[in-house]
Write a structure and sequence with these properties.
232 residues, mainly alpha, Leucine-rich Repeat Variant, 2 domains, 16 helices
Length: 232
């Protein structure tokens, strides 16, 4: 299956996609140059095969995909690890944590893994939120971003607001713009369900919050609230 997936990725290389793909990243990314929609289509061809495997076999396949360093292969790995979400066990947390710390090397892979796989795990085992909060102290920028973007989808549903504010507190003055964008996005998502509480949080912290994070946080708010938040 792995060799077949890789062969299909190679057969679907688009030179324009490869040439322009790097523009979206400050760091160097390893790309085949396959459009994301095509990557998803290739991955989905094997969904039935994946669901017929034991969970350990799927996670081992994902591990090999992550190890390649190709962004497209990381997307396939994320698709399969999320596909088997109903079989998650607590021990899988260490696997997902390892992927973030060892293999994630760009915001796209980070967000794809955390928005879906890690978020689904957290909703199933919310006791691990305390472990995720520890990620905010990491020296790895992607681990810190992961601590925030894991909560994007739960935040939109009004879940874990207290924990979201604690994570934002820990990352509040981080100097990395990709971490700032990560926790700003988390707060923006939370504002969709809890606008007043997020606005109050932003107003309380805006003197210390980097402008990048501030702008992301208030993006979904009415114009009059944006003006208040941005005023010095």
């Amino acid at each position: 299956m792995l060799s077949s997936i890789r062969q299909q990725l190679k057969e679907n290389i688009d030179l324009h996609t490869k040439d322009t793909g790097q523009r979206f990243f400050k760091e160097t990314v390893k790309l085949y140059g396959v459009k994301t929609a095509v990557v998803t289509k290739i991955a989905k061809q094997y969904d039935k095969d994946i669901l017929s495997l034991k969970k350990k076999e799927v996670l081992n396949l994902c591990e090999e995909l992550w190890q390649s360093g190709y962004m497209e292969e990381s997307f396939v790995a994320c698709h399969y690890s999320y596909l088997i979400r109903k079989s998650y066990e607590q021990a899988d947390f260490k696997v997902f944590e390892k992927w973030i710390d060892s293999y994630v090397s760009n915001w796209a892979s980070c967000d794809t893994l955390c928005n879906h796989t890690v978020a689904a795990f957290v909703e199933m085992y919310p006791q691990y939120i305390e472990e995720i909060k520890k990620w905010t102290n990491s020296k790895n920028r992607w681990v810190k971003r992961a601590a925030a973007v894991t909560f994007i989808i739960p935040a939109r549903r009004g879940k874990f607001l207290k924990d979201i504010f604690e994570i934002a507190d820990s990352l509040l003055t981080d100097g990395d713009d990709l971490v700032q964008k990560g926790y700003g996005w988390m707060l923006k998502a939370a504002s969709e369900a809890d606008q007043k509480q997020v606005f109050d949080y932003v107003m309380k912290n805006k003197a210390r919050m980097p402008r990048t994070a501030l702008r992301y946080s208030i993006e979904k708010m009415p114009k009059e609230l944006k003006l208040l938040a941005m005023a010095k």
